[in-house]
Description:
Largest sheet: 7 strands, parallel
Distance between the termini: 66 Å
Radius of gyration: 22 Å
Order of helices and strands: HEHEHEHEHEHEHHHE
CATH architecture: 3-Layer(aba) Sandwich
Number of helices: 9
Strand content: 5-15%
Amino acid sequence: MFGGLDFAVWKHAWLLFRDVDFSECNVDESDSQPGQALITGASSGIGRAISIELARHGWEIVADHYRDPDGAERTLELVREVGGTGWAHDADVGSGQELDALFERIAAHAKPLSVLVNNAAVQTFASLLELTEDDWDRTLRTNLKGTFLCMQRAARAMQPLGGCIVNIGSGANQIPFPQLGDYVASKGGIEMLTKVAAVEFGKLGIRVNCVAPGAIENERTRAESPNYARTWSQLTPLGRIGTEQDVANTVAYLVGPQASFVTGQTLFVDGGLWTKNEWPYDDDEHDDDD
């Protein structure tokens, strides 16, 4: 007996499958042999950090940028410093026509596209009463429509080998940010779009997840407030501000083999910030009386 089955059953199974060629089976290429990794908004900030980290893990970087060739070239310089390779392309993620040209270049390369990171985003600081239609359209076009268009084209390109998609969300996925109505709407939409894509693309061997950063210190957030780090670290349970590397490490995990059974999830990289609720008492205020 072999595990409850007799020898005849095992022999029959061996004879049935011994000549089968499994080389054409649907395999998540991103979990085995890194191919190309497309990162949108890669010319600065979090997108640059993600590009560098994925280059360390062997992916060939496709650094998409929007009219920022100098920034994209700086990203590629840093990619090469860690032993990586890559190339840059200028494409507006809200334009299907410009993205078609980008994906044609990707298809012309020897390595398959195995990773997409939708990072490109814009925002407008304005109340709902003051937010203009043009600003609303610009934000939704870049953040939400751009994510949709890139996912659609990437999923087509990743067949039949499979791959991974990571969408960069925000605490705005679940918390209302005053004065950022357009941004909140776009990021909330991205989280649900991630779930739909995970369900639909699963049969194609494509995993889709969302990374939602908390308060991250970088050039942009320092420009927003000179006291950004001190303000947000005091509000974060882990007692520090987040870094671009924190986000990049999480993306690298999600596109790697350790996360091969993870899809449709939103992973908050926030030090507990968006888990914490308002609480009216200090830690040292206790009342033992009933």
